[in-house]
């Protein structure tokens, strides 16, 4: 029936990312994540399997602010949020303020598939994880030397050293036009204990609808949540805009209205790609056929054959 070219598109977080060396590492990481998700599709996996795989890879890589390497709250702890959504029937799952879970995105998917809820929080989410075969890590396992140092700097100067880097996410479309989106974050450095982010909010951090498209966002959480950025992009596409115009247009509107920054990745139901960010940089990559496309700076779009 359909002749859509499958695509897996990922982002590694919008932010200042002032170090070129770090930007290069992030680009390597997102390229790997996009390719891993794409391989899942190629080997017969679902779009949910693909976005989960891409996000898990970034959660396991301490360079990203999700899973291992998540920024620390003001009490020095990792508390993470994640959400996942399937475009076919709008089913969605999310977790918030979860500690010591290696892959929060896997837990969000379990909430979607094995509970009657959309969002589980904190200790309840941990109990649910245990019940469904996810054993929490030893307390503090996701804290790294870099995040400890960054929090110390933040406490000294109230300057966010790592919050210059956001959330991770992935969107995917298969040859049948099925869509999924997934997003995962450690949140913002120096946040209060118990703070939930836009990333766990369906419509702000994540959205997927097979009739329109799929979106994952990153950036200033309070701003993204107030603007419902992911769903705003969906609405703009429903109104006839293409993926790129809707993504860039909504981010520009949000940034003008609320004076804060964000980024997003989007796939339309026709497989068109949209990438936009009002931050200095955002690492992103996608695989389509035998090409991997990627970038990190404004107006950068490189690609290579693999
Ligand atoms: N967008 C992630 C956060 O603000 O926590």
Automatic annotation (TrEMBL):
One Gene Ontology term from the biological process aspect of the record: proteolysis
Pfam families registered for this protein in UniProt: Asparaginase_2 (PF01112)
Gene3D superfamilies: (Glycosyl)asparaginase (3.60.20.30)
Site (described: Cleavage): 166-167
GO molecular function, one term: beta-aspartyl-peptidase activity
Coiled coil: none
Keyword Zinc-finger in annotation: no
Binding residue positions for substrate: 195-198, 218-221
Domain of life: Eukaryota
Keywords linked to the UniProt accession: Autocatalytic cleavage, Hydrolase, Protease
Catalytic activity: L-asparagine + H2O = L-aspartate + NH4(+); Cleavage of a beta-linked Asp residue from the N-terminus of a polypeptide
GO cellular component: cytoplasm
Active site: 167 (nucleophile)
InterPro entries listed in its UniProt record: ASRGL1_meta, Ntn_hydrolases_N, Peptidase_T2
Keyword Hydrolase among record annotations: yes
Oligomer and partners: Heterodimer of an alpha and beta chain produced by autocleavage.
Role of this protein: Has both L-asparaginase and beta-aspartyl peptidase activity. Does not have aspartylglucosaminidase activity and is inactive toward GlcNAc-L-Asn. Likewise, has no activity toward glutamine.
Family under the similarity heading: Belongs to the Ntn-hydrolase family.
Listed name of the protein: Putative isoaspartyl peptidase/L-asparaginase CG7860-like Protein
Species this chain originates from: Tribolium castaneum (Red flour beetle)
Source species taxonomy: Eukaryota, Metazoa, Ecdysozoa, Arthropoda, Hexapoda
């Amino acid at each position: 029936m359909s002749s859509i070219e499958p695509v897996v598109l990922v982002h590694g977080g919008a932010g200042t990312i002032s170090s070129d060396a770090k930007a290069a590492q992030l680009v390597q990481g997102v390229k790997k994540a996009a390719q891993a998700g794409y391989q899942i599709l190629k080997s017969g996996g679902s779009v949910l399997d693909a976005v989960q795989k891409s996000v898990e890879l970034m959660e396991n890589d301490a360079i990203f602010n999700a899973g291992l390497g998540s920024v620390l709250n003001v009490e020095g702890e990792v508390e993470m949020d994640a959400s996942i959504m399937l475009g076919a029937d709008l089913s969605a799952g999310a977790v918030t303020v979860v500690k010591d879970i290696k892959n929060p995105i896997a837990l969000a998917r379990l909430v979607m598939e094995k509970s009657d809820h959309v969002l589980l929080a904190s200790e309840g989410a941990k109990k649910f994880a245990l019940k469904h075969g996810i054993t929490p890590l030893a307390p503090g396992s996701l804290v790294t030397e870099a995040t400890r140092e960054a929090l110390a700097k933040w406490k000294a100067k109230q300057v966010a050293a790592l919050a210059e880097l956001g959330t991770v996410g992935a969107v995917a479309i298969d040859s049948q036009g099925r869509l999924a989106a997934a997003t995962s974050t450690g949140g913002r450095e120096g946040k209060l204990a118990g703070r939930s982010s836009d990333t766990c909010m369906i419509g702000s951090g994540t959205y997927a609808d097979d009739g329109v498209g799929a979106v994952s966002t990153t950036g200033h959480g309070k701003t993204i949540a107030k603007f419902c950025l992911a769903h705003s992009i969906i609405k703009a596409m429903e109104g006839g805009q293409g993926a790129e115009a809707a993504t860039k247009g909504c981010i520009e509107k949000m940034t003008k209205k609320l004076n804060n920054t964000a980024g997003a990745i989007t796939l339309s139901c026709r497989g068109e790609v949209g990438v936009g960010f009002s931050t200095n940089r955002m690492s992103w990559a996608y695989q389509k056929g035998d090409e991997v496309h990627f970038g990190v700076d404004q107006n950068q779009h490189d690609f290579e054959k693999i």
